Amino acid sequence: MYNELKTIIEQAWDDRALLQDPATQQAVRQVVGLVDKGELRTAEPVDPAKSEWKVNEWVKKAVILYFPIQPMRKMEAGELEWYDKMELKHGYEELGVRVVPQAVARYGAYIAPGAILMPSYVNIGAYVDTGTMVDTWATVGSCAQIGKHVHLSGGVGIGGVLEPVQAAPVIIEDSCFIGSRCIVVEGAHVCREAVLGSNTVITGSTHIIDVTGPEPVTYKGYVPPRSVVVPGSYRKQFPAGEYSVTCALIIGRRKESTDKKTSLNDALRDFGVSV
User: Fold this and answer.
1) Yes or no: domain 3-69 corresponds to CATH 3.40.50.2300
2) Mean pLDDT of the 113-141 span
3) 222 burial class (0-12, 13-18, 19+ CB within 10 angstroms)?
4) What pLDDT, on the 0 to 100 scale, is given for residue 271?
5) How far apart are the C-alpha atoms of 180 and 155, rounded to whole Å?
6) What residues contact residue 30 under an 8 Å CB cut-off, 6+ apart?
7) Which residues, in sequence order, are CB contacts of 18 under 8 Å at separation 6+?
8) How many alpha carbons lie under 13 Å from residue 67 in its C-beta half-sphere?
9) 194-248: pLDDT as tens digits
10) Contacts of 125-134 spanning 24+ positions with Cβ under 8 A
11) CA 160 to CA 139: how far, in whole Å?
């Protein structure tokens, strides 16, 4: 469907001199416009039941190519002033998105109808699906994929993975609850209905240890569906001695019968943990 656009983007990626061509610039802007409308995504689910996703590298390339063709300009709002090359997103009323003052989303980020942006930031290329709340001072990085009915609590940091283009962005699937001050970066994948307790850090290399069975099971950069996760640590030997290293602990599974909009405290209370 987008084969012609894809070809133009790939050619411009290999030869940046083509960015001087108005037709190439138009193609780049068209792709970013489609991302802004949610018609194209930098990554998309292939098999939601298995939490399988694919990265659309050429779309990520278009987002990167958009930066050099945009001119720097001054933007003002009353006494406030900015100097940047990216437009901000507009038309929230028509989009059906509730946006509280001081919330900012860049043009090229898709915000679905029914989403709520408290004072927060959503970067270009990101996808925020319907019913999701991006709470106060939370940030959604470039190309991050946020599912339906997700709660990103206050101060949450969702990293974006714009480069390398072949790398998957951070993915937070449907009905997840991400507790306050959590950090999810480096292409980490949090599967549907998972709960992250406050201050949990998930990176591409974080040890995520399932301690619910007789033997620990370790994941890296991947939180299985309905997992209830809290911050933890494990002991590791270094030349200077043995020290504690940060990890994340899966202490249980969110019950099928539990309301998906349950509070973090309720989910953790099931397992006798308060964080």
Assistant:
1) no
2) 97
3) middle
4) 64
5) 6
6) 5
7) 11, 12, 24
8) 10
9) 999 999 999 999 999 999 999 999 999 999 999 999 999 999 999 999 999 999 9
10) 125/35, 125/42, 125/59, 125/60, 125/63, 125/160, 125/162, 125/169, 126/160, 127/38, 127/41, 127/42, 129/174, 134/103
11) 10
Single-letter code of the amino acid located at 219: Y
Rounded to an integer, what distance in angstroms lies between the CA atom of residue 181 and that of residue 200? 8
Residue 241 tokens read as 């001695």
> Would you place residue 168 in the very low, low, confident or very high pLDDT band (cuts 50, 70, 90)?
confident
Measured CA to CA in angstroms, residue 33 lies from 59, 107, 177, 245, 265 at distances of 11, 8, 30, 43, 40
Q: Residue 263 above 90 pLDDT?
A: no
Domain boundaries, the chain: 3-69
**Cβ atoms < 10 Å from Cβ of 138:** 26
- Specify the pTM: 0.92
**CB count in 10 Å sphere of residue 90:** 10
| Local structure of 38: helix, strand or coil | coil
Q: Which tokens is 224 given?
A: 């299985």
High-pLDDT (> 70) share of the chain, %:
93
Looking at the chain, the whole-number percentage of residues with pLDDT higher than 90 is 86
